[in-house]
Design brief:
GMP Synthetase, Chain A, domain 3, four-stranded mixed beta sheet, 5 helices, about 60% helix, elongated
Length: about 160
């Protein structure tokens, strides 16, 4: 019963402080931040009496969940989704830009991989252009749009291929 009285007293005091702080805060942005902080203090204040009296929360099962293969598969699926979505968006953007520069693109394929710190890295770009298109010009235009370390392969529909 003493714990409940202590929690109610703490909540009351924090509530009064919250009202005073709400009236004293000069701007709306500050009021929002202040309310967030006071809410966190209120939650902490409500649970503190219980935590000091031998009340325990056991979180040992969390490590077993992180070793579960379902979570690893889900993580892999999410990474694959973001890589494929990024590839599609890049392919569309590069194709539009090359066509804007007068290069007739038949097909473009951009290969990406997940680099350190979960950043997506463009590793290779394959561009198929219409027959008679200057492949050197197409490669230069693509290189200006892509990272310097990206390997670019330009192929004419006729089958002639140039790597840059």
């Amino acid at each position: 019963m003493e714990l409940l009285k202590s929690a109610i007293l703490t909540a009351s005091i924090i509530g009064i402080i919250s009202l005073i702080a709400d009236f004293a805060a000069p701007g709306e942005a500050l009021k929002k931040q202040l309310k967030t902080i006071i809410t966190m203090i209120l939650i902490l204040g409500l649970f503190t009496p219980f935590l000091g009296s031998g009340f325990r929360i056991n979180l040992d099962g969390g490590s077993a969940l992180s070793d579960n293969n379902v979570f690893k598969k889900m993580d892999g699926d999410i990474q694959d989704y973001y890589i494929s979505d990024t590839q599609e968006n890049l392919e569309r953007a590069v194709k539009q830009e090359l066509e804007r520069q007068g290069i007739e693109v038949e097909k473009i394929s951009i290969h990406c991989s997940l680099a350190e710190y979960n950043s997506i890295e463009i590793t290779e770009t394959e561009i198929t252009v219409a027959a008679g298109t200057d492949t050197d010009y197409a490669a230069e235009a693509a290189q200006s749009l892509l990272p310097d370390d990206c390997r670019i392969i330009v192929t004419e529909v006729s089958g002639d291929s140039q790597e840059y």
